[in-house]
Design a protein that fits this description.
This protein is an alpha+beta fold and about 140 residues long. It is built from six helices and seven strands, in the order βββββααααααββ. About 5% of the residues have low confidence. The site of zinc ion has 8 residues, from loops.
Length: about 140
């Protein structure tokens, strides 16, 4: 079974094999679970899915009411973090996810997920040029 899924990290649509357990996004390289992903369309034929994807009217498939909200975005983020590979990629996933969820974040937000590590991780994200300080004194992903 193939389907058109929405990447939970970058919100882009793409085709995925729905029998796979996880899938990597070619746009933002985040890995996410297929189960629990938003599937906009599915069909046993990859060809049919491809055609639908090509002709897709994104407004029709991805209106605000059609979007299923992730019931537990923090768990999804942690899952992506665990699967992100090297440290830099992990930090990127974390910075991007927190920015997307909260607009901006600070040490306290990271301490919620990694107790006591907020300060160090923020410093490494700044050094790695993954985040910048936002006008409200918090941080946003670059
Ligand atoms: Zn993506």
């Amino acid at each position: 079974m193939f389907g058109i899924v929405v990447c939970p990290s970058c919100d882009r649509k793409r085709i995925a094999d729905l029998k796979d357990e996880t899938s990597s996004c070619p746009y933002c390289s985040a890995t996410h679970r297929i189960v629990g992903s938003q599937v906009l369309y599915s069909n046993v034929s990859q060809d049919v899915v491809r055609k639908t994807f090509k002709n897709m009217d994104s407004a029709k498939y991805l209106g605000p009411e059609a979007r299923v909200k992730d019931p537990d975005p923090m768990s999804s983020l942690m899952y992506q973090y665990e699967r992100a590979g090297d440290t830099r990629n992990k930090y990127r996933v974390l910075a991007y996810g927190l920015t997307k969820m909260r607009g901006s974040f600070n040490e306290d937000d990271i301490n919620e997920l990694f107790p006591g590590k907020g300060e160090k991780m923020i410093r490494m994200m700044i050094d790695g040029e993954l985040i910048i300080e936002s006008p409200d004194g918090k941080y946003v992903a670059l």
